[in-house]
Design goal:
Blueprint: E1 3-10, H1 26-30, H2 38-54, E2 59-62, H3 70-75, H4 82-92, H5 94-100, E3 112-115, E4 125-129, H6 136-139, H7 142-152, E5 159-162, E6 179-182, E7 191-196, H8 217-226, E8 234-238, H9 241-244, E9 255-258, E10 261-265, H10 272-285, E11 291-295, H11 302-308, E12 314-317, E13 323-328, H12 329-333, H13 335-346, E14 351-357, H14 360-363, E15 373-379, H15 380-385, H16 394-407, H17 420-436, H18 444-447
Parallel strand pairs: 1-2, 4-5, 7-8, 10-11, 13-14
Antiparallel strand pairs: 1-15, 3-4, 6-7, 9-10, 12-13
Helix pairs in contact: 2-16, 4-5, 16-17
């Protein structure tokens, strides 16, 4: 039976704005308060999805969240009509309104952790929505994320869904941004690689001093238990706390893996040699041949990696066994990074080609190609059980492009977030989107 890695990209929401909400994310903080272009952001993301579909890769779409999140503002004491809630929040606590308008759900690498059926005890694909409790604006996402994923992967014979972990610091979970899976074939048993920034209960692990370590070891272990993973099919590794303090807020900012290959920066991890040996040994036991590509700091500094998002790229397997790297335009603009990539692809190694995409709107808010997609390994039967409305096709691309052109603003500033009309625009757009994607009622305004 054939198997595939399907990339489900986040569709950028109508309230895409530069709120500067993510402390530790250099791009997010650097571009705070600038005016954004939601329409351009959504179209850039859709263009990437369509391009990968045209290249023969399996591609899906993950819907955005309802924003502003009026229910979240009500839980914080704002009352009245929806318009009055927004008006009061803008007047009394603008940072809370900005947080409630965040379109950060576009970065669906944080939506959940996914384990394919070949790895799990019950032979189903398992999803655990990430609690994202390190940042308030993201911590409010997981209830809707769970409903959307449930509507996409509804067949209980093939798919199992878990609620987010307890929303406390000890179980900080950032989803697939700190999770990679290695395997020989997507439908075969593999090794799941969980990367954490700190331990909540064991002080033997060093912690960063400047920026928060968002993912805990304990959260990673809990997800592995929920998914029924075998001990011999799991490897845990710690991020280098020094690189977290340089703006590497998730592992996918400093490393990316796919198939049997890990592409990583020399300074990405602690105890790197031990980790690589464990990955190699465990993958060999299930017939795989683990390989790694280390980018030396002498060629690309951590600062270069953070500013260009070299590692927040998509590493894709092609039929001939070679690898294709999807990178943002910022990699081409960075002389050292581009020189390294040219050398890498001309060396005849594992990564043979680099394709560049313009994702400026997302990049300015701190998310690149890898942030925009959630990877789900599926066999033929499981893929057939996915809601067909979310699988990218030429007609769907046309429908979504027309939908964006119809509903999205081409400029959004912080003051625009206080406009109650924005909420109505968002709800109107999302109501239509659920019909396009055949999701049913997944948003609070559709349910309540």
């Amino acid at each position: 039976m054939k198997s595939y890695e399907v990339n489900f990209d986040g569709l950028v929401g109508p309230t895409h704005n530069y709120g500067g909400l993510s402390y530790g994310n250099v791009a997010s903080q650097s571009n705070s308060q600038q005016s954004s272009n939601p329409k351009e952001a959504a179209l850039q993301g859709l263009a990437k999805m369509k391009a990968l579909t045209d290249m023969g890769f399996q591609q899906g779409v993950l819907a955005p969240q309802e924003r502003p999140d009026v229910a979240a503002l009500r839980r914080l004491g704002f009352s009245g009509t929806d318009a009055q809630v927004i008006e009061r929040a803008a007047k009394e606590a603008m940072p809370l309104l900005v947080a409630s308008c965040s379109a950060s759900s576009m970065w669906v690498a944080n939506a959940a952790t996914v384990s394919p059926s070949a790895d799990t005890a019950d032979g189903r694909v398992h999803f655990t929505a990430a609690n994202l409790n390190c940042k308030y604006h993201r911590s409010i996402e997981h209830p809707t994320t769970s409903r959307v994923l449930g509507a996409m992967f509804a067949n209980q014979q093939h798919f199992a869904h878990h609620a987010a972990l307890p929303a406390v610091a000890q179980f900080g979970d950032e989803g697939a941004a700190n999770h990679t899976r290695f395997c020989r074939e997507y439908g075969e048993a593999g090794v799941e690689f969980f990367v954490f920034g700190r331990s909540a209960f064991d002080n033997r692990f060093p912690a960063p001093q400047k920026y928060p370590a968002r993912q805990t070891l304990e959260a990673s272990q809990a997800v592995a238990r929920l998914h029924g993973l075998r001990d011999e099919g799991v490897v845990y590794a710690q991020q280098n706390p020094n690189v977290i303090d340089q703006g590497v807020f998730h592992n996918d900012v400093i490393a990316v893996g796919n198939g049997e290959v890990l592409f990583y920066h020399e300074d990405a991890f602690l105890e790197t040699d031990k980790m690589l040996a464990e990955l190699q040994g465990k993958l060999a036991k299930v017939g795989g041949n683990f390989q790694s590509v280390c980018v030396p700091r002498s060629a690309v500094t951590v600062d270069d990696a953070v500013r260009s998002y070299l590692f927040n790229s998509q590493l894709l397997s092609r039929p001939d066994g070679s690898m294709l790297l999807i990178v943002p335009q910022e990699c081409q603009a960075n002389e050292r990074v581009w020189t390294y990539l040219q050398s890498l692809t001309s060396s005849g190694g594992l990564i043979r080609e680099v394709k560049v995409f313009d994702l400026k709107q997302s990049m300015q808010n701190g998310g690149g190609p890898a942030c925009l997609r959630l990877r789900v390994a599926l066999n033929e039967t499981e893929l057939a059980a996915v809601n067909p409305g979310v699988i990218m096709t030429a007609p769907l691309y046309g429908s979504l492009t027309a939908w964006v052109e119809k509903h999205y603003r081409d400029r959004l500033s912080e003051t625009d977030l206080a406009d109650p009309q924005l909420l109505l625009e968002c709800r109107t757009a999302l109501d239509e989107l659920t019909q396009i994607l055949k999701l049913g009622a997944v948003y609070p305004f559709q349910i309540n």
